[in-house]
Amino acid sequence: MGGHMGGGSQMKDYAAYSFWLETCGDSLTPRPPLDGSIDVDIAILGAGYSGLWTAYYLLKRDPTLSVAVVEKEIAGFGASGRNGAWCTPGFPRSLSSLEEQYGRVAARAVQTAMYDAVDEVGRVAEAEGLDIQWTKGGSLRIARHPHQLPALTSAMKNYERMGLADHVQLLDAKQANERVTIAGMLGAIYNSGTATIHPGRLVRGLARVVERLGGTIYEQTEVTDYTTGAHPALHTPRGDVRARTIVLCGEAYLSQLKKVGRNLIPVYSLITLTEPLSAAQWAEIGWEARETVGSNRYTVDYLSKTADGRILFGGRGAPYHFGSSIKDEYDRHGPTHAMLQENVRTWFPMLKDVKFTHTWGGPLGWPRDFMPTMSYDPIEGLATARAYTGTGVATANLSGRVLADLITGQDSEIVQLPTVGHRSRNWEPEPFRWLGVRYVQRGFMKLDQKAEATGIAPNGKSLVERLTKH
User: Fold this and answer.
1) Which of 61, 142, 197, 299 sits at 20 to 30 Å (Cα–Cα) from 11?
2) pLDDT of residue 436
3) What is the distance of C-alpha 444 from the center of its chain?
């Protein structure tokens, strides 16, 4: 894969990992790795959104801090450089489940904080001169089958009950298709709070801003372990990064660290991308506001329209791998990518001959209870932000601000959120984990297929639904 690096290790072709990294405008040449042990104030594992936002807000608050970010590959290599371009106020846990567990006030506070986080991403990008192709067109959660319509009505009722109805609108088939023409669309719920971005430009730009503020990013430096307590440190084969506080922000890749390995599992989400469509094709489809589009299916469909006029179609379906294994070859899964491309042709029949230029994928971090964690233990000198279950773009920004507040001892509304100090229970050990996750993955597919065949919505009583209620 390309040329050689010093020390005999082979240089990866980082542009091949996603359309976003390929088109981010950077050469993607790795920054120098760590060279011997160092002492800093803050040591951060992972140069994705969570790690970089945390560094950004800490350095904005106190420019005298020494901050080191340690990254196994390059900034944006993981989900931050490969996602579906959604900067969404959506949260892994539903409003009703948050209300059930934490009460209405806390549930509403989470949702409000998520709306603010979307706008904050846009604000910082503008303030720091990052051209991230920011477009706040909102989102459509659509129903393509009659059994999916009640879910839209019930979501609308939840928003109304929470006093958040000004963000959302229930659309009938005509209104929904006036926004985007999709075969079989019967209705949608429109949420004004969502933006689309160029993920690669955001993460790579953020890395440059962190350096401009005085932070240092060490790339191609793998953290193999860490120590907390009296002498917190990140350990790498190239030396230790000793710090007052260490921050773990590796998302799915944290599953590879022994001490936290069972906090998260890596679940693969895959994406396909069409060639740029013609003006005539866009005239048929509409989609002028560049809303994000998602389905009501358990197996998850997520679509966005790129700034250069392509359709991105992403979804789950790729299998979980035994032992939470993560490998480059899992980023592409023939049957899943074929299914996604078939979905594009089904949803947009006028594109039956469309060509696809890119396919890619990657792991996202799934906690046992679908609840993100943002925590800081001053005695251990350990902070962490993780477990976004695929809705990490805006949540990571919120995490960065929460951790900056916690680490610098600043009281704020966001440090009162139920994500702060949250602990998810561990995933089961293998082989039970593999059996359980595969069972759920297959179960979700069967539920969708059965509902679409019979027209009857899942009733919430199946074992799969009970196991994954959130």
Assistant:
1) 197
2) 84
3) 20
